[in-house]
């Protein structure tokens, strides 16, 4: 998949803003082509010390391990919040 110069520029700026907001190193994961809208996906390695206050039950993997190793952000507009 190729991005046009304008789309690539806006995406880079949006990812840089997300990295600053989250104080993380963000990686562009990909673009999902939808039938009505396209979606941009970014990812970063999850931080084990960050959590949303949920209690971990014995059947859950701890944050930062297994399926919870990555955090993902999605947007369909690089001018909007991720």
Helices and strands, in N-to-C order? HEEE
Beta-strand percentage range: 25-35%
Unreliable stretches: none
* Radius of gyration, in angstroms, nearest whole number: 15 Å
Shape: elongated
How many structural units, i.e. domains?
1
Largest sheet: 3 strands, antiparallel
Total count of helical runs of at least 4 residues: 1
Task: Write a concise synopsis of the structure shown.
This protein has 82 residues and is of the alpha+beta class. The protein has one helix spanning 5-22, and strands at 27-33, 38-45, 70-75.
What is the topology?
Elements: H1 5-22, E1 27-33, E2 38-45, E3 70-75
Antiparallel strand pairs: 1-2, 2-3
Task: Explain this structure.
By secondary structure, the chain is an alpha+beta fold. The protein has one domain (5-75). Helix content is 22%, strand content 26%. The chain has one helix at residues 5-22; strands spanning 27-33, 38-45, 70-75. A three-stranded antiparallel sheet has the order 1-2-3, with no helix packed on it. Strand 1 and strand 2 form a beta hairpin. The protein is elongated, with a radius of gyration of 15 Å.
List keywords for this structure.
82 residues, 22% helix, 1 helix, alpha+beta, elongated, 3 strands, 26% strand, 3-stranded antiparallel β-sheet
